Amino acid sequence: MERSRRRSQWILLLVASLVATSSLVSSQEGIETIPGPTAYVKTLSKDVPLLCRSSKPASDCSVRIPGYMNTYGLTSLPEGISPYGNGECGIRIGTFKQINVGKFQCNLTIGGESFQRSIEVVQAVPPEPTDIELGPDTITTEDGAAPTANITLQLDGEPFDSKYLRPLEFSETIDKKGRKLVTASQDLNYPITIADNGKKLVCRAEHFAVNKGFLRSSLLLDIRFPPQPIPTIYIGGGVHTMVNVTIKANPRPQISWKVNGMTIEEGQSFGPYQSYYPRDMDFGSYLILLKINERTDRTAIFELVATNELGTQTYVIKASKQGDDGGDHPEDAPEQTGSGAVFWLISIWTFFCSVIVSCLLSVPSLS
């Protein structure tokens, strides 16, 4: 008896389960909402579609539209709203306004059964201009938007390798108008070097509610560093000799020259030597000039000292004048003229390391 009753209960539970499953399958009826369960729409958008589509034909359709009190059939829609879809249950809002924010509901009759589906219509909110903060990490944030914006990080127009980026983080807030906004933030761990000085760090936020499709914030990298040990040297020959040295430093260095026991500060002249102020060549490069207003010895040693608040670098430059045959000329030999050339063999020392570079520069002689 007890066994028979348990079997009856089991059969009853099985039947109930089958009925519930059947009801669940029947309730779905393959109905989908387009564009989805949530529709983000920009204010004043034109021809906004809201649609409930079924895999089976619907014999009847009515809708409730945000901003309107009544339920409407597709043949009696209010002004500015038209049917949408090919025999389906949908509408098209001619011009989307603030009053159209809310729940759109469609009521369908399929095979004698009634079904309801809804789409939450949300006003799209563009992001605020992005913020970029520099610290031990570079933190970029994109202020609240609905839906969230797609943000990318670039350095001088080139995207960062993903190995430097941490995963995006999201947080939700409610603004004063009661709108749910999403803020996205991303950390960048990138080893900044002197070569990055003057480059532009860009945070780009793409969002369809922004008129031009995206917002962009940028930060010019101003990297401070002492004078660097490897300069670029050029010596121009002719009636006057001009020693050209380009060094890297930020902020601007103060310089002085030491030649034949004399010290010539920037902007000063001493005997035949004239020292110029460093010329800013952008992005931490400075051109430093020493003009020699007399014939230069075949071999000359110039000492250049560059200092800024982060350090000092001393450059010892040895220049040996040679002919176009590569040999040294006697001190009383005349300068080559016409189509000939004078060569300077330049060696550079700093207190950072020993000889850094030796190069042969060809300078046409002046007749």
Map the helices and strands.
Blueprint: H1 2-28, E1 32-34, E2 38-41, E3 46-53, E4 60-64, E5 71-73, E6 81-83, E7 89-95, E8 102-110, E9 113-123, E10 131-134, E11 138-145, E12 150-155, E13 158-159, E14 169-174, E15 180-188, E16 200-206, E17 214-220, E18 232-236, E19 241-248, E20 254-259, E21 262-265, E22 269-270, E23 273-275, E24 279-280, E25 285-292, E26 299-308, E27 311-322, E28 341-350, E29 357-364
Parallel strand pairs: 2-9
Antiparallel strand pairs: 1-3, 3-7, 4-5, 4-8, 6-7, 8-9, 10-11, 11-15, 12-13, 12-16, 14-15, 16-17, 18-19, 19-25, 20-21, 20-26, 22-23, 23-25, 24-25, 26-27, 27-28, 28-29
- Distance from N terminus to C terminus (CA atoms, Å) equals 129 Å
CATH class of the largest domain: Mainly Beta
Note the total helix count.
1
> What's the gyration radius in Å?
39 Å
- The percent range for strand residues is over 45%
Give, in order, the helices and strands. Answer: HEEEEEEEEEEEEEEEEEEEEEEEEEEEEE
- Morphology: rod-shaped
| Second rung of CATH, namely the architecture of the largest domain | Sandwich
- CATH superfamily of the largest domain, by name, is Immunoglobulins
Average pLDDT confidence is 77
- Major pleated sheet: 6 strands, antiparallel
Tell me the structural class.
mainly beta
Number of strands: 29
Taken together, the total number of domains comes to: 3
Q: Which fold name fills CATH's third level, the topology of the largest domain? A: Immunoglobulin-like
